[in-house]
Automatic annotation (TrEMBL):
Name assigned to this protein: Glycosyltransferase family 4 protein
Gene Ontology MF terms in the entry: glycosyltransferase activity
Ranges for domain Glycosyl transferase family: 182-332
CDD domains per the UniProt record, alphabetical: GT4_PimA-like
InterPro entries the UniProt entry points to: Glyco_trans_1, Glyco_trans_4-like_N
Domain Glycosyltransferase subfamily 4-like N-terminal per the UniProt entry, residue ranges: 14-164
SUPFAM superfamilies per the UniProt record, alphabetical: UDP-Glycosyltransferase/glycogen phosphorylase (SSF53756)
Matches recorded under Pfam families: Glyco_transf_4, Glycos_transf_1
């Protein structure tokens, strides 16, 4: 297959969708397929794609109607004889789809890690005619989309995210760099992600305030950068939590951080199939997560940790305290690791993706 992944995300942005894109492209390339990444010049995505050994082409898509982006896409499609385009933003699909329909070009499908469409004519008439199918990573999103009645049962394909096999390393995060005192009673709660409204860190800080009142040995480490950094720091200071809640910025080596965690918390308001939670469980760290898309497919409530209502600080606080006090904490982590390793491997993800794309290309009708 000759494939082009396109993603017009901002130059300084990086998230689960971009991580999936680079991983999927790299693994498909290993299997002998010709794979290109189309993105903005000087973007994080460009840098990390090249670091992964992928070929990158410059595609400038800034809106749903992008003449420049369409011309760039047409040139790449002709030169590289592309069979199929995978767009990761709605505007990528619209620009690529219009170009392809006008020129009888390759198939164009949408990959959606979170719900990007809603039941309205805006999407039915401006997206559906330009798209040949959707890949998503949760059955909850497929169920929602299929309820619209816009397409057949096979139009939306669920392909769960996969996580690479973990290498055993001894590179545990140095807690002495942030904690004033460490003793046998110290408990570490880790959370990772962009410091954005979606991720719900404001609720985690509120829950931390309740927990620390009962046990001052519990420390919350939040790794990530984003627009809410200043407001979250202010919230921490106003709550008097400077000694127990630590914002440590972006961490390239999340594995090292998870290695010192007693539990992981995902307080998000919405997600697709959350990579951060998957990484934690794969590292054998039991978790508390809000009940957002994909979570109930990824972990089992009470067996691998606890699932709570998003935005409910009381539930979140109680679940964290309950999990920290659980005598079977290590066993929960072991079961979580076995579950994710068996059900969400990269090999399984890439095999399912490869077969689906080959089937689409084989059945292409224009």
């Amino acid at each position: 297959m000759r494939l082009l992944f396109i993603n017009s995300i901002g130059k300084k942005k990086w998230g689960g969708g971009e991580k999936w894109m680079v991983l999927a492209a790299k693994e498909l390339m290993k299997k002998g397929h010709h794979v290109l990444i189309g993105c903005r010049k000087h973007s994080i995505l460009e840098y990390r794609s090249k670091s992964a050994g992928l070929t990158v082409v410059n595609i400038d898509i800034y809106s749903d109607i992008s003449l420049r982006g369409g011309i760039q896409l047409r040139n790449v499609v002709d030169k590289e004889e592309i069979d199929l385009i995978i767009g990761c933003q709605n505007k990528d699909v619209r620009v690529a789809g219009l170009m392809s329909k006008l020129t009888r070009g390759p198939l164009v499908i949408s990959r959606q890690g979170v719900q990007l469409l809603h039941k309205s004519n805006k999407y039915k008439w401006s997206f559906l005619p330009l798209c040949d199918g959707i890949i998503t990573n949760t059955y909850s999103i497929k169920k929602e989309y299929d309820s619209y009645g816009w397409w057949g049962k096979d139009y939306v394909k669920v392909i769960h995210n996969g996580i690479p096999c973990l290498e055993e390393k001894n590179d545990a995060f140095d807690l002495t760099s942030i904690l004033p005192v460490i003793n046998g009673q110290t408990r570490i709660v880790v959370s990772t992600g962009r410091l954005a409204q979606q991720k719900g860190f404001q609720f985690l800080i509120e829950a931390a305030q309740q927990i620390v009142k009962q046990d001052n040995n519990v420390h919350f480490i939040i790794a990530g950068k984003g627009k809410l950094e200043a407001s979250l720091k202010k919230q921490i200071m106003q709550a008097g939590l400077e000694q127990n809640v630590h914002l440590i910025g972006f961490q390239a080596n999340v594995h090292a951080l998870l290695k010192v965690a007693d539990i992981f918390v995902l307080p998000s308001l919405y997600e697709g199939m959350p990579n951060a939670l998957m990484e934690a469980l794969a590292n054998g760290v039991p978790a508390v997560s809000t009940d957002v898309n994909g979570v109930s497919e990824l972990m089992k409530d009470e067996e691998h940790g606890y699932i709570v209502t998003s935005g409910n600080v009381s539930e979140l606080s109680k679940a964290i305290s309950k999990l920290l006090a659980d005598k079977n904490l290590v066993d929960k982590g072991r079961k979580a690791r076995e579950h994710v390793t068996n059900q969400f491997s990269v090999d399984k993800m890439v095999q399912n993706l490869e077969l689906h794309l080959q089937e689409l290309i084989a059945n292409k009708v224009r």
